Amino acid sequence: MDIRCAIIACAAAMSSAVSTANAADGSTAYNFLNHTSSSHIYGLGGVNVSLVDDDISTVDQNPALLGPEFNGQLAVNYMKYVGEANFAGARYGISAGERSAWAIGLQYFGYGEMKGADIAGNLTGTFSAKDMFVSVSYSHDITDRIRGGITLKGIYSSYGEYSAFALGTDLGVNYYDDERDMSLSVVVANLGGQVKRFNESYDRMPVDVRIGWSQTLSEMPLRLSVTAWNLTKWHLPYYDSGDGTDASEGKIKDSFGSNLFRHLVFGAEYMPSERFYIGLGYNYKTRTDMATYQRSFLSGFSICAGINVKRFGIGVAMSQPHTGATTFMLNLTTRLFEF
User: Fold this and answer.
1) What is the pLDDT of residues 145-167, one digit of tens each?
2) What are phi and psi of 51, to 5 degrees?
3) Which residues pair with 28 in a beta bridge?
4) Are strands 100-117 and 86-95 parallel, antiparallel or unpaired?
């Protein structure tokens, strides 16, 4: 059995095991796996499985976006998140012939120092919390327009004296029509489960099905994207506390319209040349998740921009989920063999 067959067999085993794991009652953990390492995608709403771009960081959204064109490309990312949280990582691509490619990646999520307390509320000092995962991705061109991909992830979490380890996989398919610059994708994300638990309880992986569409308009340098996610469940209710005053009565929102738009992420980009873009994203779920906080008018919106200069690509993104938090993300890409 060659290495490609071994990877596919491993993915199939985890896919069958996840249905059993999800049958058990337990909390969903590992939601950091849904956080993109691409500033381009972060600025387009944080979720996009169909963006065809010269940036290997997009592979964390869909392994089918990987290809031989990324041979020798190295991408590094850094994000200043809410509070003391800082995220960073890197990914490198290697071609495997004219129709296949590999990529390896490492992503780190550090949440800073936190105060510890016992069951009576007495402070016991401070502790650190972090998550990280190592990934291996493989893709293959099935036809001239259809590409399939798989990513395997080894996931480690450490919160003070507790730690856990899990295995996960993403499966993706992308259809790309280069004549119309139109991309369609389907992804099954975060299949897998825990190998080592924090304690006696089992934490489920955030398994998700995602569908994406990206299209460049024929008469102007504008690309639009729509991504549907959280498709494993329809109801995504949220709590709206009104204006936040004591006199305001909070409500649970679970209407058809709110459920529909909490499944959708919208993105638009202006691309006057192949070397520059500026984009805007809107994620209604992010906005409504912040309904119990002092969210700003900009909550749910995000922006990004990128430029390619000689051998380097630089991308930046920003968002403000609520008035007390402004997030910033930076990406750098380069091709090592061009030096």
Assistant:
1) 999 999 999 999 998 888 999 99
2) -75, 115
3) 204
4) antiparallel
